[in-house]
Amino acid sequence: MGIAVNLITYLIGTMHLPSATSANTVTDFMGTSFLLCLLGGFLADSFLGRYKTVAIFASIQTLGTALLAISTHLPQLRPPPCHSQTICKQATTSQMAMLYASLYVIALGTGGLKSSVSGFGTDQFDENDENEKPQMNLFFGRFFFLVSLGTLLAVTGLVYVQDEVGRSLGYGICSISMLTAILIFLAGTKRYRYKRTSGSPIVHILQVIVGAVKKRGVEVPKDVNLLYETCLDQSLRIRHSDQFKFLDKAAIIRKEDYGGDSSNMPPNPWTLSSVTKVEEVKMMIRLLPIWATTIIFWTTYAQMITFSVEQASTMDRNIRGFQIPAGSLTVFFVLAILISLAAYDRLIIPFMKKWFGKPGFTNLQRIGIGLFLSTLGMAAAALAEKKRLSKAKEVGQNAVVLPLSVFLLIPQFFFVGAGEAFIYTGQLDFFITQSPKGMKTMSTGLFLTTLSLGFSSAACSFRL
């Protein structure tokens, strides 16, 4: 966040890119970061495990931030300064190439890290232990609270360092912070709980789909006990459900599935899948409607850290002689998250336990609350932009700073920030708890792709 939230001002002010191009660069960078979460989730669930994935991709992210610090430090990697009486020279292709290389190394590291770190956190709790299960439910809110606390430091202290002291120092602080975090993470190696990988979830999904297609002409037996099931421990089995019955065809037993001799050969996994495997695929399909529903929120979020920062740069940001950096306006966004999470953890949950006997809102209710709050945020943003444009027409195009207080933007930051507090924790909880045990990291990656698509949608709106 220390990179993303203030990157647009660097692209416009230092690299001299047009505002629309700068906004697209930021949204493409952020979108790619979250899209690569699918790759990170696949590698964690299939080969590396969450611990190794976190360690490897956090190191890649650290390398990327170090490259970014170098690229912003060397004068030959940026165009000459632009003065009011000269024509601004835009950054060359080679200068942008180094910047893009740094950003997309960071994006690769972020993709692997974000898909695994929350899942690895939940691995430290035993869902079957009645004492630990409530602690895991609280984990999501507290995990995101600490993430937001880091973001608060980024949009205040780090943005100030970037704008007033030097970009390279600001990005160098990011790199050193990540290196410190990796060392702390590795220090706990002997104390962690580890979950074994259960093979590639993508292969499992494809096997069920291929098996069902191959047997599309076969009728599913009315007695579900006739469907194939391996000798799994009873606690690991998933009971048959009546949804998506077409996939049940993958569990229909035929002699051909055993190569013609059912007594000596194991079944072909591409023609015969267990009921548990089929139900795991059904569980992943059930995630998709919620996945699609939340994309629009992250489009709103992308507007907050790009266009709203650009709005702030055109408004009066002086407080008693001190000029607030435009990127630091997102502090109200982060404060809204922290206040909402703290209020939910300390006020709403105890209230609901006392009066309704419930441990807080369900994950779907939190998602709904987040969508509602973001709607209010966009309404406030529309009103603020209408007033800003009206003021711009009054003073004319020559005004560098509009005589309009930047605090006019606070309501939109606050509502969308509060919405993120509910929607992020609700989504994360939903995708981790409702996904199959062997696909939790990939499902987290699937959840994070909603952020990617949200940023892509925002990029399309900037192009329009």
UniProtKB/TrEMBL annotation:
Keyword terms of this UniProt record: Membrane, Transmembrane, Transmembrane helix
Keyword Amino-acid biosynthesis: no
Subcellular location(s) per record: Membrane
Membrane topology, as annotated: Multi-pass membrane protein
Keyword Transmembrane: yes
Family affiliation: Belongs to the major facilitator superfamily. Phosphate:H(+) symporter (TC 2.A.1.9) family.
Name of protein: Uncharacterized protein
Record organism: Rehmannia glutinosa (Chinese foxglove)
